[in-house]
Protein backbone atom coordinates (compact mmCIF):
# COMPACT_ATOMS: atom_id res chain seq x y z
CA UNK A 1 0.00 0.00 0.00
CA UNK A 2 1.36 3.42 -1.00
CA UNK A 3 1.46 5.97 1.82
CA UNK A 4 2.80 9.50 2.32
CA UNK A 5 4.66 10.50 5.46
CA UNK A 6 2.90 13.11 7.65
CA UNK A 7 4.01 16.72 7.65
CA UNK A 8 6.83 17.71 9.98
CA UNK A 9 5.90 18.27 13.62
CA UNK A 10 8.65 20.85 14.24
CA UNK A 11 10.35 20.46 17.62
CA UNK A 12 8.93 16.98 18.35
CA UNK A 13 11.51 15.30 20.65
CA UNK A 14 13.19 12.15 19.35
CA UNK A 15 12.41 9.16 21.58
CA UNK A 16 15.56 7.42 22.79
CA UNK A 17 16.15 3.82 21.78
CA UNK A 18 18.72 1.06 21.72
CA UNK A 19 18.72 -1.11 18.59
CA UNK A 20 21.18 -3.61 17.17
CA UNK A 21 22.48 -4.11 13.67
CA UNK A 22 22.38 -7.67 12.23
CA UNK A 23 25.87 -8.32 13.67
CA UNK A 24 24.62 -7.54 17.20
CA UNK A 25 26.28 -4.12 17.68
CA UNK A 26 24.01 -1.81 19.70
CA UNK A 27 23.29 1.82 18.84
CA UNK A 28 21.37 4.38 20.88
CA UNK A 29 19.85 7.66 19.88
CA UNK A 30 21.81 9.51 22.58
CA UNK A 31 25.14 8.19 21.25
CA UNK A 32 24.27 9.04 17.65
CA UNK A 33 22.81 12.51 18.19
CA UNK A 34 25.83 14.51 17.08
CA UNK A 35 26.70 18.17 17.24
CA UNK A 36 25.29 18.68 13.74
CA UNK A 37 22.19 16.55 14.13
CA UNK A 38 20.99 13.11 13.13
CA UNK A 39 19.10 11.69 10.19
CA UNK A 40 17.03 8.56 10.85
CA UNK A 41 15.71 6.74 7.79
CA UNK A 42 13.09 4.04 8.13
CA UNK A 43 13.75 1.74 5.18
CA UNK A 44 13.45 -1.92 4.23
CA UNK A 45 14.91 -4.26 1.64
CA UNK A 46 11.91 -5.25 -0.48
CA UNK A 47 10.21 -1.89 -1.12
CA UNK A 48 10.46 -0.70 -4.75
CA UNK A 49 10.58 2.92 -3.53
CA UNK A 50 13.63 2.22 -1.35
CA UNK A 51 15.28 0.24 -4.17
CA UNK A 52 14.68 3.14 -6.56
CA UNK A 53 16.50 5.60 -4.28
CA UNK A 54 19.13 3.19 -2.88
CA UNK A 55 22.12 4.52 -4.82
CA UNK A 56 21.13 8.16 -4.24
CA UNK A 57 20.53 7.47 -0.55
CA UNK A 58 24.02 5.99 -0.23
CA UNK A 59 25.55 8.93 -2.11
CA UNK A 60 23.67 11.59 -0.15
CA UNK A 61 24.32 10.04 3.25
CA UNK A 62 28.04 9.65 2.51
CA UNK A 63 28.09 13.37 1.81
CA UNK A 64 26.16 14.22 5.00
CA UNK A 65 28.35 11.96 7.11
CA UNK A 66 31.50 13.55 5.65
CA UNK A 67 30.12 16.89 6.90
CA UNK A 68 29.61 15.56 10.44
CA UNK A 69 25.89 14.76 10.27
CA UNK A 70 25.13 11.33 11.72
CA UNK A 71 22.87 8.85 9.92
CA UNK A 72 21.06 5.70 11.03
CA UNK A 73 18.63 3.49 9.14
CA UNK A 74 16.01 1.39 10.87
CA UNK A 75 14.09 -1.59 9.48
CA UNK A 76 10.79 -1.90 11.35
CA UNK A 77 8.94 -4.36 9.08
CA UNK A 78 7.83 -7.71 10.46
CA UNK A 79 10.45 -9.77 8.61
CA UNK A 80 8.75 -13.01 9.63
CA UNK A 81 5.87 -11.94 7.36
CA UNK A 82 8.25 -10.45 4.79
CA UNK A 83 11.36 -12.69 4.70
CA UNK A 84 13.07 -10.39 2.17
CA UNK A 85 13.52 -7.95 5.07
CA UNK A 86 15.32 -10.44 7.35
CA UNK A 87 18.52 -9.35 9.10
CA UNK A 88 20.58 -11.59 6.78
CA UNK A 89 19.04 -9.87 3.77
CA UNK A 90 19.59 -6.46 5.39
CA UNK A 91 23.33 -7.14 5.35
CA UNK A 92 23.25 -8.06 1.65
CA UNK A 93 20.98 -5.14 0.78
CA UNK A 94 23.17 -2.57 2.58
CA UNK A 95 26.33 -3.96 0.97
CA UNK A 96 24.72 -3.97 -2.47
CA UNK A 97 24.00 -0.25 -2.27
CA UNK A 98 27.13 0.65 -0.32
CA UNK A 99 25.25 2.14 2.61
CA UNK A 100 27.75 3.94 4.87
CA UNK A 101 25.43 4.09 7.89
CA UNK A 102 24.38 1.52 10.50
CA UNK A 103 21.25 -0.39 9.40
CA UNK A 104 19.36 -1.45 12.53
CA UNK A 105 16.71 -4.08 13.25
CA UNK A 106 13.59 -2.89 15.09
CA UNK A 107 12.77 -6.42 16.23
CA UNK A 108 9.63 -5.62 18.23
CA UNK A 109 8.66 -2.63 16.05
CA UNK A 110 8.58 -0.38 19.13
CA UNK A 111 10.87 2.26 17.62
CA UNK A 112 8.88 2.51 14.38
CA UNK A 113 5.73 2.93 16.45
CA UNK A 114 7.31 5.46 18.84
CA UNK A 115 8.41 7.57 15.88
CA UNK A 116 5.12 7.23 14.04
CA UNK A 117 6.89 5.88 10.96
CA UNK A 118 4.38 5.02 8.26
CA UNK A 119 6.24 4.17 5.08
CA UNK A 120 9.57 3.16 3.58
CA UNK A 121 11.40 5.40 3.10
CA UNK A 122 10.39 7.70 5.95
CA UNK A 123 13.02 10.32 6.87
CA UNK A 124 13.34 12.09 10.24
CA UNK A 125 15.88 14.92 10.47
CA UNK A 126 16.77 16.02 14.00
CA UNK A 127 18.87 18.93 15.18
CA UNK A 128 21.67 18.50 17.75
CA UNK A 129 19.11 18.78 20.57
CA UNK A 130 17.00 15.90 19.19
CA UNK A 131 14.16 18.14 17.97
CA UNK A 132 12.50 17.11 14.71
CA UNK A 133 13.16 19.56 11.88
CA UNK A 134 12.61 17.51 8.70
CA UNK A 135 10.06 14.89 7.64
CA UNK A 136 10.30 15.10 3.88
CA UNK A 137 11.51 13.20 0.87
CA UNK A 138 15.02 12.42 -0.38
CA UNK A 139 14.77 14.48 -3.55
CA UNK A 140 12.49 15.48 -6.40
CA UNK A 141 13.44 12.56 -8.67
CA UNK A 142 11.23 9.97 -6.95
CA UNK A 143 11.40 6.71 -8.86
CA UNK A 144 12.39 8.54 -12.05
CA UNK A 145 15.56 9.85 -13.63
CA UNK A 146 17.85 11.41 -11.00
CA UNK A 147 19.62 13.74 -13.47
CA UNK A 148 19.31 17.34 -12.36
CA UNK A 149 17.61 16.35 -9.10
CA UNK A 150 17.22 18.68 -6.15
CA UNK A 151 18.72 17.08 -3.03
CA UNK A 152 15.98 18.17 -0.63
CA UNK A 153 17.14 15.94 2.24
CA UNK A 154 20.79 17.01 1.92
CA UNK A 155 19.81 20.68 1.76
CA UNK A 156 17.51 20.31 4.78
CA UNK A 157 20.08 18.48 6.90
CA UNK A 158 22.75 21.05 6.03
CA UNK A 159 20.39 23.84 7.10
CA UNK A 160 19.59 21.98 10.33
CA UNK A 161 23.31 21.48 11.03
CA UNK A 162 23.99 25.17 10.48
CA UNK A 163 20.95 26.81 12.09
CA UNK A 164 19.19 24.15 14.17
CA UNK A 165 16.04 24.75 12.12
CA UNK A 166 14.68 22.85 9.12
CA UNK A 167 13.04 24.33 6.03
CA UNK A 168 9.41 25.31 6.57
CA UNK A 169 8.38 23.99 3.14
CA UNK A 170 8.74 20.21 2.93
CA UNK A 171 7.30 17.63 0.54
CA UNK A 172 6.30 14.33 2.13
CA UNK A 173 8.17 11.14 1.39
CA UNK A 174 6.13 8.32 -0.08
CA UNK A 175 6.56 4.61 -0.17
CA UNK A 176 5.27 1.22 0.90
CA UNK A 177 3.47 0.93 4.21
CA UNK A 178 5.42 -0.50 7.13
CA UNK A 179 4.47 -4.16 7.60
CA UNK A 180 3.27 -4.32 11.21
CA UNK A 181 2.87 -7.67 12.98
UniProtKB/TrEMBL annotation:
GO terms for molecular function: antioxidant activity; oxidoreductase activity. InterPro entries: AhpC/TSA, PRX-like1, Thioredoxin-like_sf, Thioredoxin_domain. This is Thioredoxin family protein. Residues 8-159 form the Thioredoxin domain. Signal peptide: none annotated. PROSITE patterns: THIOREDOXIN_2. It comes from the Bacteria. Pfam families: AhpC-TSA.
Amino acid sequence: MLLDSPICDFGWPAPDFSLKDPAGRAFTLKEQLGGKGLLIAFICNHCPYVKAIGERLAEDTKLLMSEGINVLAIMSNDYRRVPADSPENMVRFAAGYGFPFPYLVDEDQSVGKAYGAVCTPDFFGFNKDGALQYRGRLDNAGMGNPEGRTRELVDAMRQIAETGQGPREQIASMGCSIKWS
